[in-house]
Every structure is written in structure tokens, then in C-alpha cells.
Specification:
This protein has 146 residues and is mainly α. Helices cover 54% and strands 5% of the residues. It has two domains: 76 residues, no CATH class; 50 residues, no CATH class. The strands form two sheets. Strands 1-2 form a two-stranded antiparallel sheet. Helix 2 packs across helix 3.
Length: 146
């Protein structure tokens, strides 16, 4: 697809100059770098929980046009993936007997859902949720409303 685009436009004249292959590749690489920055920003802002479908939806709401298949490729290339509630990996990671880091991923999922819904998490474990940027309250501690 990219090769076809370059072949179709390399002889095109812009302001009296032939485009050529190198300038087209430079522009495409620059656009890819910029898109990668935006993808990482959205993924990080959502605690690393969002996958390609939701990252794509956020970018479209921000008027950044990207095809979901391209976004999936970029996310794979930079090592980002979301967490799927239906995926066995999350089940494994939420089960302490099957995954040593079970609490970390479970807290990320809970915190992401709470932030998206603008909710407060009621837990006696506030010290682990507060760094994730979610509002917490410990119902077993008097005057713990934050």
C-alpha cells in the first residue's frame, strides 16, 4: 500500500519540484512518529488498560484520524496492549494462585473503570489505589473521605 502510494506520487510536482521517494518517506515517518506519541499518550492516560478499539475511539473523538488496523500495528510495534476482561490472561492475573502480580493488574482494571465512570473506590486498601489517581474512601476508617 505504501509502495503503491510512493509510486503514484514520486513524479508529482509541488511548487515546481519533483517530490521523489525520500521526501515522501520522510513525511510518512514523521506522521508515524507523531501518531505513536498520541497512541502512547492515550494508552498511558487510561492506565494502560485501553486496547486498540478504545484508543482508536478516543483518537477519533479528538479528531485524529487513524484506521484501527493501523493503530493495532502501531500498538504491537511499540509493545502496548490493553486488558480484556474476557481474556484468560486477566482471569489468571486476578487469581493470586495463578499469577504473582495479581493485585497490580486487578487494581489497574478497577481504577480505570472507576475513573471512566467518575466513581469513588471504597476499599481498606487506599494506599494502593491513590497513586493510580482514583478517588478512594476507606469505609472502615472514620473521616476517610478524600
Amino acid at each position: 500500500m505504501i509502495v503503491d502510494y510512493i509510486d503514484a506520487h514520486r513524479d508529482r510536482l509541488v511548487d515546481g519540484h519533483r517530490l521523489g521517494v525520500e521526501p515522501i518517506c520522510t513525511v510518512l515517518a514523521s506522521a508515524a512518529r507523531q501518531l505513536t506519541v498520541e497512541i502512547r499518550r492515550v494508552w498511558t492516560a487510561n492506565l494502560g488498560v485501553y486496547g486498540a478499539r478504545k484508543v482508536c475511539a478516543v483518537l477519533h473523538r479528538e479528531h485524529i484520524d487513524v484506521a484501527r488496523c493501523a493503530l493495532e500495528m502501531f500498538m504491537k510495534d511499540i509493545g502496548l496492549q490493553g486488558i480484556s476482561i474476557q481474556c484468560d490472561t486477566v482471569d489468571r492475573c486476578m487469581n493470586p494462585t495463578r499469577c504473582p502480580r495479581s493485585g497490580v493488574k486487578a487494581r489497574r482494571v478497577i481504577a480505570a473503570i472507576a475513573q471512566a465512570a467518575e466513581m469513588t473506590v471504597a476499599t481498606s486498601n487506599t494506599k494502593h489505589f491513590e497513586p493510580l489517581g482514583v478517588r478512594c474512601v476507606n469505609p472502615w476508617e472514620p473521616n476517610s473521605c478524600h
